[in-house]
Amino acid sequence: MSHSKKAAIFNKDEAKVNWHDKALWYVREKRDNAAHGVKGWEYLRDTASKIKGNVLSNLDNYLIEFEANAIKNNIKVHWASNAEEHNKIVHKILEEHNAKNVVKSKSMLTEECHLNPFLEAKGIEVVDTDLGEYIVQIAEETPSHIVLPAIHKTKEEVDELFQEHLGTNPSNGNPEYLTNEARKHLLNKFIEADGAITGVNFAIAETGGIVVCTNEGNADMGAHLAPVHIACMGIEKIIPKEADLGVFLRLLARSATGQPITTYSSHFNKPAEGTEIHIVIVDNGRTEQLSREDFRSSLHCIRCGACMNTCPIYRRSGGHSYDATIPGPIGSILSPGKDLKKHSSLPFASTLCGSCSNVCPVKINIHEQLYKWRQIIVKEESQPVVKKSILKITGKVLGNRTLYNLVGKSARFMLKYAPRFMVYSKLNTWGKARELPEVKNENFDTWYKINRKNNG
Amino acid sequence: MGRDAILKAIQKNKPSLIPLPEINLDAFEEPIDLLETFKEKVALVGGRIIALDAIKNIDSEIQKLYPNASKIISCIKESNLGTISISEKTNPHELEAVDLAIINGEFGVAENGAVWISEDNFPIRVLPFISNDLVIILNKEKLCSNLHEAYKLISERNRTFGLFISGPSKTADIEQCLVIGAQGAMSLTIILV
Ligand code: SF4
Q1: Of A34, A252, A396, B138, which has fewest CB within 10 angstroms of its CB?
Q2: What pTM did the predictor assign?
Q3: How far apart are the CA of A346 and the centre of ligand 1, in A?
Q4: Which domains does chain A possess?
Q5: Which domain of life is it from (chain A) (predicted)?
């Protein structure tokens, strides 16, 4: 099903959509506040982008350096070309330790590889221990956002899920009560676990160490209690030097949630006495993306989620509409590279307003890459009618540089000052269930002023 | 085999070498009051910060803050509150019911209220996470302005396990409502001496 069809389903519950929209915009505003508080923020972004550019141009050597240093520190390193190899490697390590109860902290890579069902089919229990991921796991869903996995769920829905799965009392969705119940339940899981899986935020070539960032402390609870810790990373997680973390950790949490840093930024360099650390380095389509000059820089992504929070389409259509592990603007660049046919509608799920590129901490030109995918897709795939007409307009505009710049500027202006009009005009299927009909008794100016007040 | 195939594919597909940028750290310099900024940021991230005149007062201060704590692990020699002693040999699973851990912090980072702590400060890695509450003792002279400075300070360390910890564990995964106390410690108190 295309993005717009799925978005139409999400838009049926208007109250929920409005909440989703506002909640994410609020996170975007927190990001702005945090960014404005840092002297040299733009220089920081620029530097991060340049470091990532260097990384991609020297990735093979950095990976070799990383591996050698990690091995020196008693860490075991594995390589996987694709999801299947990755899953088999993880399973083999667990099997060697006779591990049956595994706790996992957030890792979009293991989602991408569908690790959970693979391990479950082999009789291994996997518990997602990030609260948001735990919620979507018991709901038998997938994360709808890379930083806020359960942002699509209301607290009442969580309440019901917990009653069913944890035997909690009805609480009208009291977040403190529910979080505390999950804490108790997950503590038992951590204690029982005989294997822990985490993601990797940064892997440092110079030291062979990895850094894992969480707010909940779940990665550390898992990794330090279980006898074996398996950390899974895409090849692009490498950074050259430890000092580069100064750049990336200053950007990551501020861009993600507006916090100055995540609660825990844990640096693993050597396993503790009597335990093992394994690192699985995964390609799964990344080297192919590296070959595409126009899309290469999408591998700079540090998975902060800022482009999702700011995207007017993401906010109004929900992460599940993208039907991909990584939703939102960055996902719409990454997914077509993996399966062009399946994900051909994603690059069209954008107003090309450029807000994503403006907030991206590693300065990926996201909206320009979306446009480039459109050009490729139009050549290769047949388009539904509405898309075609949008495309005709954007095609005409973007074909002409001056016109593009002009319209780009005014589009940004419009988004700032008249987001509803821009985004929810009749042509856009994402705005189908809009309150546009209500405008009919007012002129646009009055309607817009009132609505802007009400909807921020 | 995965390794060779991946490395070969990278060699084939990577762009020609782009140099690493020189980072001009002067661009981030600000005239800030380290102590005041640090205090402000610790409060922002949900931590509590207390300045003591003399280290000999820490035990009475901690007892005031955590009157109900009975299973206490102290990793600092200045405190006599410890009721459980641990070593590198302790099974981490035995720490499940610890009420309070008291550890030394190495230095604080003003820009984000984080404190660097490492395995040198606690013999069992899981301790600062599994303990219900956490107290970090920090020398108020040991503050740096930002993470760039922080990484200089730890560049020569013996690399085993260490972390920046900024406030207590927290989550906003239920309707974006901030809840303090997720899977790690429920509270963090930094005592400046
Ligand atoms: S593309 Fe940029 S803004 Fe989006 S998640 Fe990645 S790093 Fe963050």
Answers
A1: A396
A2: 0.89
A3: 16
A4: 1-37+293-383 (1.10.1060), 39-284 (3.40.50.10420), 396-454 (no CATH)
A5: Bacteria
